[in-house]
Amino acid sequence: xxxxxxxxxxxxxxxxxxxxxxxxxxxxxxxxxxxxxxxxxxxxxxxxxxxxxxxxxxxxxxxxxxxxxxxxxxxxxxxxxxxxxxxxxxxxxxxxxxxxxxxxxxxxxxxxxxxxxxxxxxxxxxxxxxxxxxxxxxxxxxxxxxxxxxxxxxxxxxxxxxxxxxxxxxxxxxxxxxxxxxxxxxxxxxxxxxxxxxxxx
Length: 201
Description:
The protein is α/β, with parallel strands linked by helices. Helices cover 53% and strands 14% of the residues. It has 8 helices and 5 strands.
């Protein structure tokens, strides 16, 4: 069972069209069909309801079950690749909504805080919704987010940073952060923001 076949199957089930899946990957329709046949042979069951015209691609019960797991597998692989790339990068990528970024820097300067930890930070600016998606997708390590309501997500370590402007700091939970050889840069920056929360809340 190879990764490309899983990707073909997932998009086919999502788009419900052989033509659409082929166009998405810029391959021929037979390429998609052969991938599905390989998976069906390996699993010993039909994943797609047979339609000789190949105009539609509806999932069978087994196909629906398989697709839900394939989605998780593809997400895990994408996250793993991002984490490996990030582990090779000495810089930590942090999301900052522009208004919050300006507010924090002003507070730090007024308190004469040491800004040295920020020398290891690559700042990514964007709206809170966009930064949340990047955080969950593994494109950034850590982010400050603005939200009037509490932020809840099992994949994130979340702490309210500033109550008066509803700012939350969110750290994505990854495998390499839980190992003894975890990157010190992640914990040092987390400690910085957590210590700030006791000062400015």
